[in-house]
Amino acid sequence: MKIGISIYCLDNAMAQGMTPAQAIDWAADHGCEHIEFVPFHLPLVDEKSMALNTALIDEVREKCLSRGLEISTYSVNADLINADESVRKHEIERVKLHIDAAERLGIHLMRHDIASFRRPFDSNTPENFEKELPLMVVGSRELYDYASAKGITTTLENHGFFCNGSDRMVRLIKEIDRPELSLTLDVGNFHCVDEFGYAAVKKCIKYAKVIHFKDFYIRQKWQLPNQNEMFNCDNGSWFETLGGHLLRGSIVGQGDTDIWEVARAIKAANYDGYISVEFEGMEPCERATDISLSMTRAILRQA
Prior knowledge:
Helix content: 25-40%
């Protein structure tokens, strides 16, 4: 296994002025074996002009090379099931542009979402999932085929509330039916749909090429009156799960995810891919990510 971070861990620091080069230095200085890119404060694509930011792409690629830090994957949000066909087509072209950025970065894995947008919980039903499945399959196949021609394998993540849960993720992989299609398996995100992480990991890990290793505090709503911040997980605030619990991101090993059982499931499957620590809590992100990295190494070593 190669242990590193998603640059998302440092998102708050980057919002306050940390440069991409400084974030890469931080990861290398803290012993990361790889780094995962996300575009929030790393604008590799200008989505208004629909053009690559080639100068930044080349800068971060060469910076990682100079520090001996592998870029493992590149992860982008996407909505492939918008009811408006013109919007869907534009979204496909937008994600293809990010695939072009991944190609210029010289990497071979890229995660795209399918439904990373906010929708009312009462619309998140098995019936609606089945109704939207054909659009998910068509869009994901088109992106997979486009990326594959460039030597890139796409991955899907159990992310958000609609495309989440072990059964739905396995169903998607099988329905899309592409030979190397795989998962970015987020061990914490299963809590968003009230599924125990270790049980879901056991079902899904054979499809995983990247694992997001993260932790959540889990509370019942009555324990936190007036703290229901539906759909708001920014800066470590509480947000509601599909089943009505409340979650808040924590430092790895300090939350309520049974992270030790998750680690045992990962090791029992002989997983040998990328582990990306992902911190999204309220503590100062650099210190919290440092602790999360140390905990992740210790847990995976001892589990």
